[in-house]
Structure formats: C-alpha cells, structure tokens
Amino acid sequence: MPDIQTLRQRLTTGQANALLDNLYGSRAGMRERQIARYLDLLDRFAAQFPEADLAAAQTEVEFFSAPGRTEVGGNHTDHNAGRVLAAAVNLDTLAVVARRASGVIRLYSEGYPPSVVDLSQLEVVESEKYTSTALLRGVCARYQQLGLAIGGFDAYVSSEVLKGSGLSSSASFEVLVASILNHLYNHDQVDAIRSAQIGQYAENQYFGKPCGLMDQTAIAVGGFCTIDFKDFANPVVRKVGADSAFDFAATGYALVIVDTGGNHADLTGDYAAMANEMKAVARALGGSVLREFSKERLLAEAPALRSRVKDRAILRALHFYDDDQRVVEEVQALEANRFDRFLQLVIESGNSSWMLGQNCMLTRTPEEQGLTLGLAVSANLLKGRGAWRVHGGGFAGTIQAFAPDDLVEAYVAQMRALFGEQSCHLLMIRPLGATHLDL
Fold first, then answer.
1. Within this chain, do residues 263 and 360 fall inside the same structural domain, yes or no?
2. What is the C-alpha separation between 81 and 161, in angstroms, rounded?
3. Residues 213 and 255 in one domain
4. What's the DSSP call for residue 3?
5. How many structural domains comprise the chain?
6. Residue 177 · residue 141 · CB < 8 Å
7. Is 256 within the bounds of a domain?
C-alpha cells in the first residue's frame, strides 16, 4: 500500500488523471475539483488519526470509491422479482482507509457522528437503527456469517451522493464498506453481486429499511445495466449496449436529477407499503411475489381480489406488470439505437408511477406537491423533445429528466427557479462500480 505522501504526489503530478476522468467525466473543472477533494480527504484523515504518525505521512493508506446510482426503468419492480434498468453515476462515496491491527473499525464521515464498531460485538443494536454505524456493523456481521474474513481499519469518508435524492446514499455507503473488507481482508475475491447482497442484508436487518437489491447491485456492478431479479439469490445482470457500455454522451441528451424539495423524513413506511401491497396481491393469488403470475391473471381475478386486498394494492400490482415489461422494451430500444422510443417509454413509466404506483405525493400531506409540480412543468418544457419521471422511491420529491443538449440550460434554469439553485444535478454514467482505487 502507498503512504499518504505518495498518494499526494500521484494526485498532484497527473498520474491519477486518467482514472479520475473515468470516474467523474471530463466536464470542465471536474478533474481539478476532484483532485482538491482527494487531497483534502487525505488531510482530514491525517488530522483525525494523529496517533499513527500521520504527520510524517508514513501510514499506508488506500482510496476506495462507491458510486451513487440512478434508476432509469422499473420503478418499484425489484422487490417483486421484477426487472430494472439502472446505472452507476459520477457522484460517489469516497474513503481513505488504513488497516488496523486491532479488531476495531473507526470510521468518520463528513456530516455524521463517528462510527466505532468492535468486531467481537456484531449483534443487532436496536438503538443504532437508521444510522451509518448500523450499516457498518451489518456489513461486517454478514461477512462473518458467510465465512469471509473481517478486520479492523480506520477510515475517513466523504460523500457526494446526495442524501434523499434517490441516488442511494445508504447503499453507496454499504457497498463501499463491503469493498473495503473485500480488498483488505479477502484478496478481492467477493464478486459484485455478493457485495450487493451483503449491503442489502445490512440495510434490511441492521439499519431497519426493507429495501430491494437494485440499488446495491447497480452500485457494485457499475456502468449501465439491466438486472433481472426473478431469482433473488442469483440476479441476472447484463451491461447494456455495444461492448457492454451504452454511451449516453453520444445521444445528445443530458441526464438531470432534480430535487423538488419536500419532507424527506419518515418515509420508510411509505416505501415498505409499495412492496407490501404488491406482495399482498401476490399472496391473494396464491404466491409470494407478482412475478409468479401474469397481468392477465390479475385482471381476470380483480373482482374477487377486491374483497381480499385494497384497491390501491391492485393498482400498484398493475404498475408492476407494466413497468416490468417496459424495462425489456427500454433495453431493446437502446440497443437498437432507437433513443426516441426509449424516451417515450421513460415517459410512460413516469405516468404509470404517478397514476398506478401512486408514489408521486404523500396522501397525508396532499398540499405539498413539489414532485408533481416538477413533473408537470417538465412535461411542458420537454414535451416532444425529452422525457421525465419520478426517480427512486418517490414521495419525497426527486425526478429524473432527459433533456436535449440545446434545452438543458433552459430546463435547468426553470427547475432552479422553482426549487432553488442547488436543486439540479447534471450526471454522467460511471463505468466502474464500487472499487479500490489503484492510484
């Protein structure tokens, strides 16, 4: 492992430029901003752990990075064994890490309380739920349960994955920790899918959120990929496009994530209800997930189902079937270079989420409709030229848009006028998943 001084030198002399461009894109000023960020993180690590003689810059350290992810197709389909279209993006969770001889992990993350986990105590701690410490402990526990090696380390973390944006900041953190343990103690033998499953376990069992596996998989795998969850234990992952990498830059469109605001607190129940109501329909049909049945079966039995499940559950089940099939069609459209058809399918997906999935507003606060306002304005600005849809879990207010290059400036200006200067984020698709960075 290199020491701090060596990493500083590699960053400032251009040795890391190609890797940084691959991770973050070549937009003007991006490389310089990331170099400054990396150097600052090294300084913060040194200041946080002075007992390791860091002032002399002799401690051996490593960089690790895990991207955020954007869901492109398949809104709330993964938890019912459906298909999704997702991509890693160039906003990431970045860590500087040094191995510790003791069985303790000390992790500091900007904007969060420090996390300290004794590896001899990996049981669920109820008071830690909904914290990063719970995720850290959960990843370590799952590694141990699977017979994988674990060990101590010190880490300082910086995240650009926007919290509450639908870009999956928690999954990025989970898979980052899994990547650290994989590289430091398991010779990089844990594959991307297993890392994703470990992250999901930590979020389900330790953090307390009943998430599916899409977020962690897209983050662990990287690039632009379609994921089929028909077999939860062995999801089928495939990169999209020629040479396993679909090039969005060549389409003449920009990917824009817009945070329309709203209260992001206490949405776990709303997210859980999406999965639970769909699964309630599946149970009423005699199974466990909707993928076991056809849409035609659901429609045929809808009259009888109304006495066993709520109407909203049936509507959400219909959304599942439509959006699951849409993923197949979106992939076909992209690989046939029919981007206009792809955009139309994105719009159809968003309309289905709005009308059937009903995750574009909170019924308990109907007067707050920033997300639906953003969708309506996007439809007026981009109609016939782009696409728009709810992004991620929904409810709290993030939307995704595909805007043609000549309309991006006007679109972003309108969204910022509505929701604030920090509401819009132009993204690129990142080819690398969570990984150790060999600078």
1. yes
2. 26
3. no
4. B
5. 2
6. no
7. yes
Q: In 285-356, which ranges are continuous DSSP H helix?
A: 295-305, 311-335, 339-352
How many C-beta neighbours within 10 Å does residue 404 have?
Answer: 15
- Which residues are bridge partners to 109 per DSSP? 157
Specify whether 169 is located in the same domain as 289.
Answer: no
In a shared domain, residues 309 and 193: no
Question: Can you tell me the distance from the alpha carbon of 372 to that of 307, in angstroms, rounded to the nearest whole number?
Answer: 31
CA–CA dist 103, 116 (Å, integer): 11
If asked whether residues 217 and 100 sit together in one domain, one would say yes
Tell me: do 304 and 218 sit in the same domain: no
**Euclidean distance between the first and the last CA atom of the chain, given in angstroms as a whole number:** 10
Q: In CATH, what number is assigned to the domain containing residue 290?
A: 3.30.70.890
Q: Is residue 81 part of a domain?
A: no
Per-residue pLDDT tens, the chain, 439 aa: give them: 788 999 999 999 999 999 999 999 877 899 999 999 999 999 999 999 886 544 334 578 999 999 999 999 999 999 999 999 998 999 999 999 999 988 999 999 988 899 999 999 999 999 999 999 999 999 999 999 999 999 999 999 999 997 766 688 999 999 999 999 999 999 999 999 999 999 999 999 999 987 778 889 999 999 888 999 999 888 898 888 756 566 776 788 889 999 998 765 678 788 889 999 999 999 999 999 999 999 999 999 999 999 999 999 999 999 999 999 999 999 999 889 899 999 999 999 999 999 999 999 888 888 889 999 999 999 999 999 999 999 888 887 889 999 998 999 999 999 999 999 999 998 888 889 999 999 8
> What is the pTM for the complete model shown?
0.83
76 — alpha (psi -120 to 50), left (phi > 0) or beta?
Answer: left
The domain in which residue 306 lies consists of 248-427
Domain holding 122: CATH number? 3.30.230.10
Same domain, 116 and 164: yes
